[in-house]
Design brief:
Chain lengths: 235, 235
């Protein structure tokens, strides 16, 4: 494998705050980055346009968008017609698995990233999950990521040939405030990112869903200005 | 979880000999079966029509087809424009990873099966891989399947709640001849199945690719008539 290929990484890029920060971190680590986004029947296609702008702003070498049909399986407020919960008290956010959980989503995303990593000869896959603010998703836990890395190195030609794929989750132990501080140091323009589960047509955040609440609290705790445009200005 | 839900299984169904046998085995085990096939940019869409006929003949409760775009990644003779090797000597079949290997294919297929299992409340996923005739694919090995099962039970709500998903590969230790004998006992019509990597437009098998060779040898060893229609009758 060439030197160039070994320094390539696939970066899962959703258009949100976390994955934008991860892309900046992968770039800062010296990786040639292949950003990978998905069109998965989600209600907010706006995310993909944000992902495109972020990949461009952070100098990703490539940005690929793969169509997948998670909506065919239903089962989540992010793909089906289940209302997104609003205004839940902040201390309730971490309890249980929320209705916005998409079945096996990260497993599907990582599987495609693995296929791309194998074809591109990339030695790492970056994913923006974190354990502290993980909002109850089972596939955002460190033990899940370790299991995927073990799988990846049994699943692929690269693994069999001894130069495996590392699953990197550099945000895993960071709070939202720490993520925002780190990304700001690296020049991430958080005005491009969209965290809201339920933005309006103009791409303005609702301010009330779990994701908006976590984000707002993060900027407040980081002591940094929140560039998010909200449909209804927070009180 | 209801009794009905616990007895459901997702069965990966390609339209080939192995997965048809697996569907029959899952039905014989008393599962309500949800057959799952993929349209993945493969050159032989004929497979999907065969899968539909097999699901019907073997009384699958449902048959779902999911579109995924593996061709976007290239890297395999089954999705890209790399010639399928023909007429390789039989003793060369098991050596190395062949060009027909699709990057991370089983990982992607199992990930979608996992999403469907979670939504449908199915407690098992059946896959028709086998170790003896596995033709050099890294993601057909028993240790790979164990790693996926471990992942599945960390990835999902069902796993977190304690009623996990079992990955079942009932063909894993069988020879092609044993598979054919078992399926024949269960009434599988192998005339419906298509194993060939490179069939002609009428759906006739080429007779020369690795998959055709394994299949022909299997029927011969089983001492059963081969219902396959070949474009060129084998000598």
């Amino acid at each position: 494998m060439s030197e160039t290929a070994q320094k390539s990484a696939v970066v899962l890029l959703s258009g949100g705050l976390d994955s934008a920060t991860v892309l900046a971190l992968a770039r800062a680590d010296g990786y040639r980055t292949i950003a990978l986004s998905f069109r998965y029947g989600q209600r907010h296609q706006l995310e993909l346009e944000r992902a495109r702008l972020i990949a461009q702003a952070l100098n990703a070498a490539e940005h690929r968008i793969v169509d997948i049909d998670l909506a065919a399986f239903g089962g989540s407020a992010l793909t089906a017609d289940i209302p997104v919960p609003k205004g839940r008290p902040a201390d309730a956010l971490a309890e249980g698995i929320p209705v916005t959980y998409v079945p096996a989503r990260n497993t599907i995303f990582l599987s495609f990233a693995l296929a791309l990593a194998e074809v591109a000869g990339a030695g790492a896959i970056f994913i923006g999950v974190n354990a502290l603010d993980y909002s109850g998703y089972p596939d955002c836990r460190p033990e899940y990521l370790s299991a995927f890395e073990a799988l990846a190195n049994l699943a692929t030609k690269a693994g069999v040939e001894g130069h495996g794929v590392a699953i990197k989750a550099p945000l895993i132990d960071l709070t939202k405030a720490e993520i925002i501080r780190r990304g700001t140091e690296l020049g991430v323009d958080y005005g491009l990112t969209l965290s809201c589960y339920d933005p309006d047509e103009a791409g303005r955040a609702c301010g009330g869903c779990d994701s908006c609440q976590l984000r707002r609290r993060g900027f407040a705790e980081a002591g940094l200005p929140d560039p998010t445009v909200y449909a209804v200005e927070p009180v």
